[in-house]
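Response to reviewer comment R2.3. The reviewers asked that we include at least one raw input/output pair. We reproduce the pair for Thioredoxin 1 here without editing.
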Amino acid sequence: MDVLFYIVMVFVGFIVFIQIYARVQGLMKRGKEIPPIDGKIGNALAQNATTLLYFYTPTCSACKVMTPVIDRLQTEFKNILKINLASDLEIGKKFGIMGTPSLVLVKDNKIQSFVVGAKNETFIRKLLNNHQ
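Raw output as returned:
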């Protein structure tokens, strides 16, 4: 029984460590210049003062829940871009995306917010309204 307890505690500790690590990495990216990006996404970032980038993959369970929320918000906010990492992996690498879903708020070519994990519509709406 003691061995099982230690195995569970190591597993839980590992999960907590990963969560803390992802949050610290996101905080460290705030204020950094975005890398140069070509194509449609690069043009959109150059034209908009504030842009929310939504990184997802089609096979991600949390993304399947969050993508319809992003689709609804795209009708209201024109500065939201969806980036499928299955086809645009290089852009994900440039931003240092470690997991999906991820939200990166860019304002004036600097990262203002970097969030990993599924978020609800209220959180995303506040994020966009606070940085307009």
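The first strand starts at residue 50 and ends at 56. The chain has a mean pLDDT of 89. Further pairs are available on request from the corresponding author.
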